[in-house]
Amino acid sequence: MSAPWRTALCTASCLVTVFLVYGVVQVQSLPCEIQGNAQLPMIVCFITASNEHYDYDSLRTGLCSHIVLIDLIGVGKDGSLEVLQTSSRSLNRFCKLKQHFSDVGDEAKFIISIGGVAQKSSHFSKALKTTESRSALSDELISFVIKHKLGGLDIAWFYPAQFGGAESDRTNLIVFLRDLYLRTNACAITLSLTVGVDPKDIEISYDVPRINEVVDFVNLLTGDYHNPTSPTHISPLYGQGPRDRLNINYSVMSYIEAGLNPRKIVIMGSCYAYLYISKIQKNDTFTTTKLRTVMRLSYLSATELITRESFRTSWDDMRHVPYGMLTKGITKKWLTYNDVESMRRKADYAQHYQLGGMGLFSVDEDDYGGRAGFGRYPMLRAIVSILYPELDCSEEETEEEIETIICPYTGFLTDPVEPECYYACEEGM
């Protein structure tokens, strides 16, 4: 035994001593103050680092319990930590937002996510291949979180043992998470995992019972089930029948049956849409449609498109989601999206089954400027209105309330309604 004991010291409210006794890992915790109620539902708000136009100042306190910055850092070709968005100013804005929340007493956890859609699975696979490489990556991640005074770490690997990964990824991920969980606990840092919801993911990528033991919560990417080859709903709550597996209910129940504690499950709602454009082809005997393109739109862009082109919108009673249709000449358009009502039903589902909470992927694609006429952050507020109805987020601030927050410091401050406009502020005025 090379090291009989090891102590992890961090500047945190809790100190956890991790040591080895006859080869067995034991954890001894010192008493620490518990902040809040662990049973309260989480509202996890993702921000994508690649969105340079997002106004971080528009996100008000009291709406999110956890705020996650994703697509900023990942694993490089050599298995070490690398910045995916080299020109991004998102980390600086993210840290300023964290400081503002802290200054006004909001205890939301600010979390950095490693990986994301721009991350190559093979790079993750290499980084977690050996004991030395796993330890090196763990060191880098802990150092990054402590350096920037963040409150959590999220692992977003899409997906272990797939897309260039190795068969051993499934096991290596657990070994990595187990060590990282001990270290994050020692530093009073939350550890979460963001996972896929394709039925094959559980079998190929995730050892669910063991994951349940080594993370604080799991974000289920239930916001996007769309098929790029044929028009399908982006985020249906239920399926058309027992054989329909691409829906939120099936995904949640699959993870629960596989061994994941429901209180650790956070279902993610999407703030974007897909527009399917097809060409109608006719001949003497029948009419067919051929898919020409699929476009990804933000929630605001989808809302504006519906109004501008006069889409006929409908509601799918079986799947609990809206959709829009438009036919002009030989062009047929079909739009799948979430709206306030579908988001409320998802939040109600999370509450009914006593899940850990609900999240939004991502708040920078919500209507944060209130341009569509439904107030600022309508999708996020829809979730809050169900999980925390006492907050009454349906109403905008009164003019008097805006006056009290308009100049919290000296400098330039974005207008809460028109983000492209700025106020030259003096503190207290």
UniProtKB/TrEMBL annotation:
Protein name in the entry: GH18 domain-containing protein
GO CC terms, sorted: extracellular region
GO MF terms held by the record: chitin binding; chitinase activity
Record-level GO BP terms: carbohydrate metabolic process; chitin catabolic process
Higher taxonomy: Eukaryota, Metazoa, Ecdysozoa, Arthropoda, Hexapoda
Signal peptide region: 1-29
Organism the protein comes from: Anopheles christyi
Swiss-Prot/TrEMBL keywords: Signal
Domain GH18: 41-390
One Pfam family here: Glyco_hydro_18
